[in-house]
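for the writeup, i need someone to sanity check this before i put it in the appendix. the sequnce is what the collaborator sent (i think, or maybe the updated version? ugh). structure was predicted straight from it, no edits. if anything looks off just tell me and ill rerun, i have time this weekend
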Amino acid sequence: MKTKLIGILIIIGLILAGASYVILNYSYSAGNRVGKLVKLSKKGFLPKTWEGTLDLGSGDRLTWDFSVHDDELGEKLQKHSGKMVNLEYRELLWRLFYDTKYDVTSWELTDAKENDMAMLCRFVDVLRKDKKIVEIIRPMIQQYDSSLLEKIRECQNER
């Protein structure tokens, strides 16, 4: 009887431990965020994690808070404070020891000039849909900023 009770308690304990692990580590969603890394600090009592803030620059929420559970990843990311970064993350169901549910799994530096060029190309693509607008704007660009016209031609060469 006593061994049955101990066996049942061990099985219940293993089931609870397994369920807890799944609940605390299950990825609810995943994605990317791009912005300027404005804060990253190591915090925590028992499990120390890197907690950071990303400046998104526009929209309703101008900042995004995140956690980095991997110590090596956090140390490398901290060296790039103040720079534009692309963070790949997973959203956890629960946060127990961390400030946020967003766990950054990888990152890369992004070039703001490259993003500006992509935005310019998208804008030019929209304008090119109306020939009248092109006929009005092209002479103005030639007159006031001919280097911009060179950038626009780069967009057209990429397509």
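The chain has a mean pLDDT of 84. The chain is about 45% helix and 30% strand.
thx in advance!!
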